[in-house]
Design a protein that fits this description.
378 residues, mainly beta, Immunoglobulin-like, 3 domains, 15% helix, elongated, glycoprotein, membrane
Length: 378
């Protein structure tokens, strides 16, 4: 208990130590730590150790950050571009505390870009916006860089939007495939002929700042008794989503949350649905955009395409068969019941449309002829 109390008292003393005291300790003629320095490329603060110490801790802006490695250096995840105070303290051994500032503060702090915000949208686009610093000179110009904090690869912005003064206030990346989904630093550097411009930065992963687009319905089918709808969400960084559905059947409005990318309904009738999504692996994720409301009218099930084609083919064959049957029947009727020949009527011989039939010799028959005598009136 006494050791724990002593340790707590030591931490309190370190945190409350004024800068003037730190400077006085640095001016000790023979301190245990000398030549405190920062290596931004290797992201480490190191020093020269003189004497025996058991434990050294490093602090960032008076907040404990890391325990020293081999009591000779501390390594950080990244080195901010803003002026930051780094301090080192001996917690077990001869008392010592010292600090450095990196990078050195130059120019007016309020000349830096303000309200830097970046987000991924429409699945393939990354946009960053910022406001001109309140104390920035009129000729200030800003440039944005995206840096992978693991590989240290850096990408400059190539597409800017400018305000009415010609100052860059927005940047867009159109191809996210070349960017890393890991931890990235978005930094905006400024320049002016009047004075140095401090930088601004934020550190985010791309999936953390992604604003999901509305889900797209990929397939839908329904009849009087059953309905199924499927959809998908485009994202380069996540595959696990949660969905919220808003369904309306008549006057009944229902909200439903699910991790499935499909909806099944029994006896659906006529209904409308819209969908939105969010990441499931993030803490307190925000919902994306709603999809367009789709309306489904589920009546009698339509005939399958193959059955419709088969019925058309059968109808065509039946029509052809009927035509052939009629033609054949007409030919048979002609043979069974040939047309009866008629004697030429001399009275109507002058008519042009009179039908004439030639008698064949073998079919000529001897017919009895009677002589008729017309007697005049007495």
């Amino acid at each position: 208990m006494g050791a724990a109390f002593a340790m707590a008292f030591l931490w309190l003393a370190v945190c409350l130590t004024p800068i003037s005291c730190l400077l006085q300790m640095d001016q000790d003629p023979d301190p245990v730590i000398k030549n405190l320095r920062m290596d931004p490329e290797r992201k480490r603060m190191s020093w020269d150790l003189h004497g025996n110490v058991s434990q050294i801790w490093c602090f960032v802006n008076s907040r404990r950050a890391h325990k020293a490695r081999n009591n000779t250096y501390c390594k950080f995840a990244h080195i901010p571009c803003q002026a930051t105070n780094y301090s080192v303290s001996v917690t077990q051994g001869p008392p010592f505390s010292g600090w450095i500032q990196h990078p050195k503060l130059e120019g007016k702090a309020r000349a830096a870009a303000e309200n830097l915000t970046c987000w991924v949208h429409d699945a393939d686009l990354l946009t960053c916006t910022w406001a001109v610093g309140r104390e920035a000179p009129r000729d200030t110009q800003y440039h944005l860089y995206l840096e992978n904090l693991h590989s240290l690869q850096k990408w400059p912005c190539s597409q800017y939007r400018q305000d009415e003064w010609g100052t860059n206030v927005e940047c867009r990346f159109d191809d996210l495939s070349v960017l890393s989904p890991e931890l990235n630093r978005f930094s905006v550097n400024g320049s002016s002929r009047e004075s140095p411009i401090p930088c601004s930065e934020i550190t985010k992963t791309l999936h953390e700042i992604e604003r999901l687009t509305a889900p797209t319905i990929t397939s839908a089918w329904c009849n009087q008794t059953y309905s199924i709808v499927q959809w998908q969400v485009r994202s380069h960084f996540r595959e696990d989503f949660e969905y919220e559905l808003e369904m309306q059947q008549g006057a009944h409005l229902e909200h439903k949350q699910t991790e499935d990318n499909f909806l099944k309904l029994s006896n659906p009738g006529t209904y409308t649905v819209r969908i939105r999504a969010r990441h499931t692996a993030m803490l307190a994720p925000s919902w994306g955009e709603w999809s367009v409301r789709e309306r489904f009218v589920c009546g009698r099930a339509p005939l399958p395409v193959w059955l419709t084609s088969l019925l058309i083919a059968l109808g065509t064959l039946l029509a052809l068969a009927l035509v052939l049957l009629l033609c054949r029947r007409y030919a048979v009727m002609q043979q069974l019941f040939p047309p009866i020949p008629h004697v030429k009527d001399p009275i109507s011989d002058h008519l042009q449309n009179e039908r004439m039939m030639a008698w064949e010799e073998e079919k000529q028959q001897e017919c009895p002829v009677a002589e008729v005598q017309i007697l005049g009136e007495n």
